[in-house]
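Same chain as my last thread, 227 residues:
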Amino acid sequence: MGRHQPGAGQYCPISRALDVLGERWTLLIVRDMLVGATRFNDIARGLPGLSRTLLATRLRHLERAGIIERSDTGYGLTQSGRALEPLVFGMAEWGARWVFGEPEEHELDAELLVWWMHTRLDTSLLRSEGPSGERQVVHVRFADEPKRFWIVVDRGVPSVCTADPGYEVDLTIRSDVRSLYEVWLGRLPIATAMRRGVLAVDGPPGVSQRLGEVLRLSPVAGAVMNA
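reply #2:
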């Protein structure tokens, strides 16, 4: 564990924890690493409001504190960092119950939403329902966002494209940004969204009825549903 840096100046474990974790963005970096982000560019892309300079500063801080460690392939959580999982997702449960409501316009970022979604896709159903192959392509089209997005899963490795990759599309998801956010975060059930006409899918027979198996929701969706 890194050497303690004085903050609130109180000899208390909560105070010490806040010295390490209390700065803006720090817990969001930990959140993204808990759900699989390891490379600098991936962490940066998942936190578009955070400058790369400040991200580098925060990562050095977490490394000195013994919460993350750096390797040739990126960053990983230490035992200390992994022990933050119940704290981070406990905050999700508290937030879902007490402060989480209708989205604000400035919180709706279509590209960020697709970035979050891309690592949560399970394309095994697409492989079984559609043409077999090593590549699956999901096209995400927003009614209120001119930019289009493609999620390409090539040999199990997902990536996001904002230009047509030129591959045959296996599944198209159509929605507006707000509605798909609410679906992704568990505020709006998939079946309800489809019944209201704010979510539609085009793809192999049977996939629309089992979309939740392909589009696995946010890791915090359970907390939102149970709030």
